[in-house]
TrEMBL record:
It comes from Serratia symbiotica str. Tucson. It comes from the Bacteria. Pfam families: DUF416. InterPro entries: DUF416 (IPR007338), YP001051499.1-like_dom_sf (IPR023381). This is Putative conserved protein. The gene is yjaG.
Length: 195
């Protein structure tokens, strides 16, 4: 599914950079989950928000202690089921949860690269699925690659990657800035805007 050179480049980053990259992509998927919750009265988007905030905190607070096992349990209870909703928004909401789950698993296992690649792929898949749904048909990777929405998602992922890759060591101001900018923008990878 839509491979990109970014997946090879991610290998060069350190784990804190992978984590910041993953948190950034989850931040961009959060509005999809939030909107779904608002539309359906399903769950509480604050659960997602709190878990993601805890991850950001561990990136900037040196000895932040977080029980990620218990956060994973909370997340698992907050994932909607496709069977329960006849609404397109359930799919981007589930993808947002899959991405956050990958981020939690990376904190539990200490493995960050493979999870970073999976979240990158999940985010692009959300965009691709919407494009195919709107077009009413399946598309090949070659067809998808040239779509403006796909190109834009890759551009943003590259932008986040480059900001992180330019840091020699963990840069707290950069991490805080990324978090702030993405939260303030409140625009998701598929254009959901809750600002």
């Amino acid at each position: 599914m839509l491979r990109n050179p970014i997946h090879l480049r991610l290998e060069r980053l350190e784990s804190w950079q992978h984590l910041a990259f993953m948190a950034s992509l989850c931040e961009r998927m959060y509005p999809n989950y939030q909107m779904f919750c608002q539309q359906t009265a399903f769950g509480d988007p604050a659960i997602y928000r709190r878990i993601l905030d805890l991850v950001w905190e561990t990136l900037v607070v040196k000895d932040a202690k977080v029980n990620f096992d218990s956060q994973l349990e909370k997340l698992e209870q907050a994932i909607p089921s496709v069977e329960d909703y006849d609404l397109y928004g359930v799919y981007p909401a589930i993808d947002a949860c899959i991405a956050l789950g990958e981020l939690i698993h990376s904190r539990l296992s200490g493995e960050t690269l493979e999870h970073a690649i999976t979240i990158s792929e999940t985010s692009i898949r959300t965009v691709a699925m919407l494009e195919m749904t709107q077009a009413g048909r399946e598309m090949t990777d070659d067809e998808l690659k040239v779509l403006p929405a796909i190109a834009k998602e890759w551009d943003i992922q590259w932008e986040i990657f480059r900001l992180l890759a330019d840091c020699e060591e963990r840069n707290l101001d950069l991490i805080k800035g990324l978090r702030y900018d993405l939260r303030e923008a409140a625009i998701s990878n598929i254009g959901v805007n809750l600002a």
